[in-house]
């Protein structure tokens, strides 16, 4: 590999962008101090196979250093939100910020053909709809992890990755340095040997997802969607028993996307939200 640039610091290691000398492709490689200490992360990553989880390629040691070799994304969700808040034009956003963005725009010269048939009638790209779809994909990744009885324990915008592939947005959960299996007997340890505390199980992941969705959907005024505020507040409730499961959260977001619920219209769909999930929307 040829090291290109530092991408950031993950749990227990530094992450860098590299280019493979033979295939010329870019990848993310995590430098770790002790491969034995990160055996849990490697085992969890190697067991996962889902489009909403960063793909693990392998782990290896070279010249006394240890590495985890993973799929490379275009940007973190934090980067995506920062750039979104500074951009009004999707074409410029794609060409300036997305890997192979120029090729993407040649393939999709009209914003109307973006992503899927739901966008075919759109004269103007809707940042809120894209933000909602990204939020939906984050939750889809959580559903997969929780069905595998895996808790991420570190859901945040810097650990969520956004890419654009084949005219679709791809959202993936990454950095499993703090992840645990629900059947693990031993609590994971920090690098100094002390136990990691503060894990909240699946409900803790949902609390973190609520913080992400709050920033993604409600932070920017022109993206504010009042019909989702109660949903996000339920995720942030101090009483973890009131938080919806990842499966229920995904159902609600899919419903919102299907019905094209937006602030100021679709009153019938809004009423259906209250009828189908009263425990969330009528509190």
Automatic annotation (TrEMBL):
GO-annotated biological processes: response to stress
Domain of life: Eukaryota
Keywords: ATP-binding, Kinase, Nucleotide-binding, Serine/threonine-protein kinase, Transferase
InterPro entries, per database record: CC_SR_Kinase, Kinase-like_dom_sf, Prot_kinase_dom, Protein_kinase_ATP_BS, Ser-Thr/Tyr_kinase_cat_dom, Ser/Thr_kinase_AS
PROSITE patterns: PROTEIN_KINASE_ATP, PROTEIN_KINASE_DOM, PROTEIN_KINASE_ST
One Gene Ontology term of the molecular function aspect: protein serine/threonine kinase activity
Binding site for ATP: 30
Pfam family name, one: PK_Tyr_Ser-Thr
All copies of domain Protein kinase, residue ranges: 1-283
Recorded GO CC terms: cytoplasm; nucleus
Similarity comment: Belongs to the protein kinase superfamily. Ser/Thr protein kinase family. GCN2 subfamily.
UniProt-recorded name of the protein: Putative serine/threonine protein kinase
Species of origin: Lutzomyia longipalpis (Sand fly)
